[in-house]
Amino acid sequence: MPDVDRARAWLLTVDGAPQSYVDLDEPTHLEFEYARRLGHVLDALARPGRPLDVLHLGGGALTLPRYVAATRPGSRQDVVEADRGLLRLVAEHLPMPDDAAVALHPADARTWLEAAPADSADVVIADVFGGSRIPAHLTTLAYARQAERVLRPDGVYLANLADAAPFAFLRSQLATFAAVFGELALIAEPGVLRGRRFGNAVLVAAHRPVDTAGLARLTAADAFPARVEHGAALREFIGAATPVPDEDAVPSPEPPGGAFGIG
């Protein structure tokens, strides 16, 4: 069950694992490393302050919707979250500012995506975990095609993924989205990419070039620096992995004990 602890800010945990961190006084503060990497991509997508239409698959404590509302006023955002109890908790304790155009939808992410209008979003952000694993139905080629359909031609898909060596899940996800999008990038800590530990990796997929040089500068300056892989290096990483059909889909791997625990 979700739990919220109050200090100067709010930390929301699910079954003892940190799920979201929100500072109500400073919505641009992104505590978790993967969230900062998503924020870097959002910052690089368009000129500073330009409003965007953003679809969030997975709501958490609305950390990224708050970030977008603060950095890009006037943005229109939809948040799809299957956990109705979590949505009620967040609405009661962590409401969005009154002037933020954020609509909350209690629904399954893929079901909602399949019914969403085509060419309706500048960005789709997937951060959906059932417990500590990404549900299987959000890992497939059919799902990737639905995300591409909802995005505008210059739109960008972002996903928070998690895996460890030998990276069967991560490679399959890259192969799946490479079959739909012309440009891919992957952002992760070097220790994760070298197979030293389980960790998060941010997938960036688009039909337009991704500013990988700019992203590399931003992520390298973080407290926990990350690497941006793209082009030939990413194709080599994918190797012989193939896109995932619905009938072969599996959830992301179970994290080892303590991988996402509170230290």
Question: What features would you describe in this structure?
Answer:
With 263 residues, this protein is an alpha/beta fold. It has one domain: Rossmann fold (3-Layer(aba) Sandwich), CATH 3.40.50. Helix content is 31%, strand content 27%. The protein is built from nine helices and eleven strands. The strands form two sheets. The chain has an eight-stranded mixed β-sheet, sandwiched between helices. A three-stranded antiparallel β-sheet has the order 1-2-3, with helices on one face. Strand 5 (76-81), helix 3 (84-93) and strand 6 form a beta-alpha-beta unit. 41% of the residues are buried. Mean pLDDT is 92; it is low at 1-7.
Which helices and strands appear, and what pairs or packs with what?
Layout: E1 2-6, E2 10-14, E3 17-22, H1 33-45, E4 53-57, H2 63-71, E5 76-81, H3 84-93, E6 101-106, H4 109-115, E7 121-126, H5 141-150, E8 151-163, H6 168-178, E9 183-188, H7 190-193, E10 199-206, H8 212-220, E11 227-230, H9 231-238
